Amino acid sequence: MNKPLSLALFCLLLPITAHADNPADERRRLLDEGSRQTQQYRESGWLDTEQARGEVEETTAIFR
């Protein structure tokens, strides 16, 4: 393989290898975001309503 072609292939594959750990980081980020939103809902009193209980139960059922 000649050098320009090798370099082009390397540049194309670099983003794939750079994001190898990305799923774990993305999961952690989403969990942190969910925790932050839950805290905001708690502070606003939204979680104490009937509507909130229904939506939480719906969402929980989807993820099971």
Order of helices and strands: HHH
Strand element count: 0
Distance between the termini: 49 Å
Q: What fraction of residues sit in β-strands? A: under 5%
* Major beta sheet summary: none
Mean pLDDT: 74
What is the CA-atom radius of gyration, in angstroms? 21 Å
Q: What form results from the Cα inertia axes?
A: elongated
Low-confidence spans: none
- Number of H- or I-type helical stretches: 3
Instruction: Please bin the fraction of helical residues.
Output: over 70%
Structural class assignment: mainly alpha
Structural summary, described in words:
The protein has a domain at 21-64. Helices cover 81% and strands 0% of the residues. The chain contains 3 helices and no strands. The protein is elongated and about 65 Å long. The mean pLDDT is 74. This is Periplasmic protein. Residues 27-64 are annotated as: Disordered. Residues 1-20 form the signal peptide. It comes from Neisseria gonorrhoeae.
Short account of what is shown:
This protein has helices at 3-18, 22-44, 50-62.
